[in-house]
């Protein structure tokens, strides 16, 4: 455009096109003699050269500036090179001095010459020969006092050396720059050592500064020559650049440039396309006549910010932003303008933007449809990402209603079958329930959320449910089938202003989950066919999410039901421990955490806490199997480590069976902690399989984590389990928990244990208070894992509740035992149990004397029941059997089983205990 502008600007004045050099470079414009045309090529070349070096044109000024810069750079380079050469020669002189001095000091015969009667006679010729061979200015040999033996000037021999010789006398090397007897110089002093390392003399070699400077001066002509060549090459390159610039600008001077810009301005205001130039600060710099007409700009628009010109907001923001735009359509008054905008740059930085405007009013109708289609596509996209964000049926229905209002309808309602809300299969005979409502106003006379609705057969909703397709009612006032649903409410709806309806069934495959209704009130036109298609697409996408939420609700309900059925409904009655517990499922679904309290023989109580990794039905079912196994194993009165070994073997078999089926994951992630507390001895035996250690709160409030050996998780097999025995004071609190309480994504288990310790320190004294305090302090807002917490406060059976006797291995001792039992029962106020108790203990003691081994002990406990125990050192297990009529024995255990409420055998490391329990009167 610049070249054409220059061409157009000159032709009215009688000048030729820019390609003619005699017109461009300042030759006469009028009155040129005809015979001068033959000299135009020569004069053109002369004019260009004169312009290039004269500085009257842009190219000439650039040429002079570049020559000056190159000259300055060459001068700086020459100075730097001279200084560098001098520095390098000085350094070379220092290195040469050291090398010559060390070579002469270590040369054969140098040390021996020092010991000769006349060292100068021997060393002076050698030193001068070495000096001439190496190119140094002097080689001086001296004794340790600095007295010279050699010197280039013989009159200096015998005089003291000028320089620092102390480091050399210490065995080092000295290099220094001084003013010596022959002028400024660089010298090195090195020691001469005997075989023992003792310094016996010194050697100095050096080069004068005159020699160093001469070397640098000899290199200076070469440097100046190179600088001259560089200057010539740079000047030639600059001339080539200036010549190219001269050719591109046609040698225009200020007058020509002014005329060119005037021509540009004329063209700019003559084109039938709006042109706007905006500066970097958002100010309008230029707007041609067409831009003023299209945008209806004020007369004084130039110099003002485009945001203050009263333009439409989107158009003003585009022009102010300076961003790139290509055929971007904007509605300005009654015109559709296609805007193209490109940013401009000045010296590499953004300096504003240039925009062109083209009237595209004929595209208005198409633009409106395109905008409507784009809005519908955006709404479908938003439906894909905004509906179904949670696996909750009600919330998913609410997301559908909220998305449709007000972008598609003024009111939207979602009605689902009751079975769908509970996760079940929808049935057409059941009622629907209003699940979600959204509208531009809250006072619409539609059915409220939560109300059950039975649609009449003539209603659009009922027809949509039965036909499986959307039903549109363009005019509700003239729709008797819809009004028949509820005459009073229908009249209120019409009076409210709602005039059009689309009812779309919620279908997920072959299932019909409910119906969605879209209502219109503000827009006067009824729903059309395209909007019905959009409504069907929108509901179809939402139906998939609602069905997924329904399926999840069903599975979640099944898992919760299974889990609750497997967890203990209530705690068993016992007196050894005061117990409180909490169980909190994870936010994402049920898991495999569990706990149990199991009364054992001898007033003992077992506490169990376990965890199966994972969530869902499989984890809950596995938890139930493990809990049942622990119940069965605990009935054998096994020690904790042996019980965990059996449980580990069971899990390994489960894994093996399920691996063969190939449809279930292994449960080797299961952990368990098993503890048995004895209120008589106040001892607690604990073993754990991959489970976090228990916490112990002493009566004084101190908290500790006892050192219980950590066994491997259940199912690994091959490794034994170890147990630890703790002695608990009365009123101590034993805290068992699962890892969800102490471990999450933000804290590792060590930090979680420390936080649990702090929470227990601040907790109350009772187990209930402890549970409440721990959960308030440690429970996350959205737990990602199940949490099981069990707090047991210990009690003790005092001496007044325990009676124990040592029994000799003599049948006559049975009578003594009966007498002692009778007296004890009288003291306890249990005379009613004397007969049965004497009979039970008589049979058990007699069996121990007859079939067991010493020592034999009898213990009687008064707890919730009366407990009788007989210990002997034999591990032989008694068996209950039916004696024949002719048998003389075999009826003792049968009588015990009949008289006692429960009885059994408990094995100990040193024997066994046969026990029997009787209810207290």
DSSP, total strands: 31
In spatial order, strands of the major sheet run 12-11-10-15-14-13
CATH hierarchy: architecture of the largest domain: 4-Layer Sandwich
Number of helices: 25
Rg to the nearest angstrom?
54 Å
Overall average residue pLDDT: 81
Helix content: 40-55%
Largest sheet: 6 strands, antiparallel
Quaternary organisation: single chain
* Poorly predicted segments: 1-43, 883-888
Shape: flat
| Terminal residue distance | 118 Å
CATH homologous superfamily label of the largest domain: PPM-type phosphatase domain
Task: Count the domains.
Answer: 5
The name of the CATH topology of the largest domain is: Phosphatase 2c, domain 1
Helix/sheet category: alpha+beta
Strand content: 15-25%
Which CATH first-tier class of the largest domain would you pick?
A: Alpha Beta
Transmembrane segments: 58-83
Domain PPM-type phosphatase: 574-794
Membrane topology: Multi-pass membrane protein
Protein name: GAF domain-containing protein
Give a verbal description of the structure.
With 921 residues, the chain is of the alpha+beta class. It has 5 domains: 132 residues, Beta-Lactamase (2-Layer Sandwich), CATH 3.30.450.20; 90 residues, Beta-Lactamase (2-Layer Sandwich); 186 residues, Beta-Lactamase; 226 residues, Phosphatase 2c, domain 1, CATH 3.60.40; 118 residues, 2-Layer Sandwich (Heat Shock Protein 90), CATH 3.30.565.10. It is built from 25 helices and 31 strands. Helix 1 crosses helix 9, helix 13 packs antiparallel against helix 18 and helix 21 crosses helix 22. It is found in: Cell membrane. One of its GO terms (molecular function) is kinase activity. It is a multi-pass membrane protein. This is GAF domain-containing protein.
């Amino acid at each position: 455009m610049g070249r054409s502008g220059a061409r157009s600007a000159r032709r009215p004045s009688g000048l030729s096109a820019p390609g003619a050099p005699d017109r461009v470079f300042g030759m006469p414009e009028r009155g040129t003699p005809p015979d001068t045309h033959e000299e135009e090529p020569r004069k053109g070349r002369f004019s260009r050269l004169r312009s290039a070096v004269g500085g009257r044109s842009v190219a000439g000024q650039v040429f002079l500036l570049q020559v000056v810069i190159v000259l300055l750079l060459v001068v700086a380079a020459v100075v730097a090179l001279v200084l560098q050469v001098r520095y390098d020669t000085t350094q070379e002189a220092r290195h040469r001095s050291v090398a010559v001095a060390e070579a002469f000091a270590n040369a054969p015969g140098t040390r021996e010459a020092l010991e000769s009667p006349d060292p100068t006679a021997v060393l002076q010729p050698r030193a001068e020969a070495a000096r001439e061979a190496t190119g140094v200015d002097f080689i001086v040999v001296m004794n340790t006092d600095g007295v010279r033996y050699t010197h280039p000037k013989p009159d200096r021999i015998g005089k003291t050396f000028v320089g620092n010789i102390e480091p050399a006398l210490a065995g080092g090397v000295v290099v220094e720059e001084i003013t010596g007897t022959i002028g400024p110089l660089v010298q090195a002093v090195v020691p001469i050592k005997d075989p023992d390392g003792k310094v016996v003399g010194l050697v100095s070699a050096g080069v004068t500064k005159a020699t160093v400077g001469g070397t640098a001066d000899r290199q200076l002509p070469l440097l100046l020559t190179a600088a001259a060549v560089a200057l010539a090459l740079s000047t030639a390159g600059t001339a080539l650049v200036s010549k190219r610039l001269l050719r591109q600008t046609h040698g225009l001077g200020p007058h020509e440039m002014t005329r060119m810009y005037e021509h540009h301005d004329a063209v700019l205001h003559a084109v039938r396309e709006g042109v706007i130039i905006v500066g970097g600060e958002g100010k309008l710099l230029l707007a041609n006549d067409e831009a003023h007409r299209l945008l209806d700009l004020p007369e004084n628009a130039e110099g003002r910010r485009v945001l203050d010109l009263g333009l439409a907001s989107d158009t003003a923001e585009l022009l102010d932003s300076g961003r790139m735009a290509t055929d971007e359509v904007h509605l300005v008054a009654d015109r559709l303008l296609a805007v193209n905008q490109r940013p401009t740059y000045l010296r590499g930085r953004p300096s504003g933007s240039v925009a062109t405007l083209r009237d595209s009013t004929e595209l208005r109708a198409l633009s409106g449809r395109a905008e409507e289609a784009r809005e519908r596509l955006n709404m479908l996209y938003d439906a894909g990402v905004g509906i179904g964000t949670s696996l909750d049926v009600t919330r998913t229905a609410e997301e559908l209603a909220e998305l449709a209002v007000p972008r598609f309808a003024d009111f939207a309602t979602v009605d689902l079958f009751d079975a769908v809300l509970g996760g079940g299969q929808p049935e057409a005979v059941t009622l629907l329930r209003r699940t979600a409502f959204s509208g531009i106003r809250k006072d619409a006379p539609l059915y409220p959320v939560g109300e059950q609705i039975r649609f009449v057969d003539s209603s659009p909703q009922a027809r949509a449910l039965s036909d499986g397709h959307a039903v549109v009612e363009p005019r509700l006032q003239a729709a008797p089938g819809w009004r028949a649903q509820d005459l009073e409410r229908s009249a209120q709806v019409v009076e409210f202003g709602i005039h059009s309806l689309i009812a779309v069934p919620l279908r997920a495959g072959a299932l019909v989950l409910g119906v969605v209704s879209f209502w219109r009130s503000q827009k006067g036109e009824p729903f059309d066919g395209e909007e019905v298609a959009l409504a069907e697409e929108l509901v179809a996408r939402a139906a998939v999410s609602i069905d997924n939420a329904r399926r999840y609700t069903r599975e979640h309900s099944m898992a919760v039901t299974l889990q609750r059925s497997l967890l203990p409904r209530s705690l068993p009655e016992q007196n050894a421990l005061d117990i409180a517990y909490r169980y909190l499922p994870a936010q994402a679904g049920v898991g495999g955490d569990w706990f149990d309290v199991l009364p054992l023989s001898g007033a003992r109580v077992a506490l169990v806490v376990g965890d199966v990794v994972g969530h869902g039905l499989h984890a809950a079912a596995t938890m139930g199997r493990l809990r049942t196994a622990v119940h069965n194993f605990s009935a054998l009165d096994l020690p904790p480590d042996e019980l965990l070994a059996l449980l580990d073997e069971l899990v390994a078999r489960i894994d093996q069976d399920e691996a063969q089926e190939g449809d279930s994951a292994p449960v080797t992630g299961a952990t368990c902690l098993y503890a048995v507390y004895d209120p008589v001895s106040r001892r607690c035996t604990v073993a754990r399989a991959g489970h976090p250690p228990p916490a112990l709160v002493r009566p004084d409030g101190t908290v500790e984590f006892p050192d219980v050996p950590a066994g491997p998780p259940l199912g690994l097999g091959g490794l034994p389990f170890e147990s630890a025995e703790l002695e608990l004071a009365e009123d101590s609190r034993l805290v068992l928990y699962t890892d969800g309480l102490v471990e999450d994504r933000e804290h590792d288990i060590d930090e979680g244990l420390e936080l649990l310790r702090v929470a227990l320190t601040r907790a109350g004294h009772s187990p209930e208070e402890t549970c409440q305090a721990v959960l308030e302090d440690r429970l996350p807002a959205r737990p990602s894992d199940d949490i099981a917490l069990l707090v047991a406060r210990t009690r003790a059976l005092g001496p007044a509740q325990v009676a124990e006797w040592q029994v000799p291995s003599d049948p006559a001792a049975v009578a003594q035992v009966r007498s002692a039992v009778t007296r004890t029962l009288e003291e306890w106020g249990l005379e009613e149990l004397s007969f049965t108790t004497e009979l039970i203990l008589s049979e058990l003691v007699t069996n121990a004397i007859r079939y067991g081994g010493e020592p034999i002990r009898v213990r009687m406990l008064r707890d919730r029941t009366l407990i009788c125990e007989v210990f002997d050192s034999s591990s032989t297990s008694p068996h209950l059997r039916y004696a024949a009529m002719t048998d003389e024995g075999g009826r003792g255990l049968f009588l015990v089983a009949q008289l006692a409420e429960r009885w059994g055998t408990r094995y100990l490391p040193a024997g066994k205990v046969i026990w029997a329990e009787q209810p207290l009167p």
